[in-house]
Write a structure and sequence with these properties.
Strand order of the largest sheet: 5-2-1-6-7-9-8
Number of strands: 9
Helix content: 40-55%
Distance between the termini: 44 Å
Shape: globular
Amino acid sequence: MELDVYIRIKAVVKSSVGIDLEHYKDEQMRRRLDSWLVRSGLKTWDEYFAKIKADPDELLKFRNYLTINVTEFYRDTERWKHLQSTVLPMIIKDSSPRPGLRIWSAGCSIGAEPFTLGMIMEELTPNRKHYILGTDLDKGAILRANSGGAFITEEVRGLSPAQRATYLRSGGPPFYVVDSLIKKITFREQNMISDTFEKDFDLIVCRNVVIYFTGETKDLLYKKFAGALRKGGILFIGGTEIIPHPQDFGLRSIGISFYQKL
């Protein structure tokens, strides 16, 4: 894709779809757009933009594609085990005597991540009620999360047989989580870049999301995440993600993928 074409596409996407592609890495997004046009069966972007203008369903599909939804329960299992065995017990101990934790899954897609958090908290503190928030830019993903799925086989492979029996409805694939787990989570549509964040979180989980953004946008988000954490709160990021100078955001590294607010 030529640069002048991409510049025009970015303008149309911002006005018609409501997504500012300036925050995304150019080369990566241009490849995704080229692939999408081929899959659409149309020859030019003018034809495609005419199609989404006339077809709300196609507009929604395009918006969902641009938000890059990838999800899985316990994705990157070793990091989640460390969260459950070491990081969360530390947070829980530090949170006493408050009634429950404030936990946020940012960029939660269709809900596997906040549902995983709900399972973990039920196993660690079965008698405590926690506030678990799941947010995503994709309205369709949030609607699916509120319905408990559906999840394909690959997305639930990280669950143990006992967890499947406890937290998934009978039947499948596709799989849906039980209503009692859905009720533990608050789901909300949110634009992380432009919207204001809630405050005083004990744990913020944002994994494999900022890798798609430019360096400037990453810094903006890390600053906003740090501001949303309470003192001593933890930011849990993706296994391939690193905050080069965490002290610039009032954070310190406490191991791979984990940063604590100073």
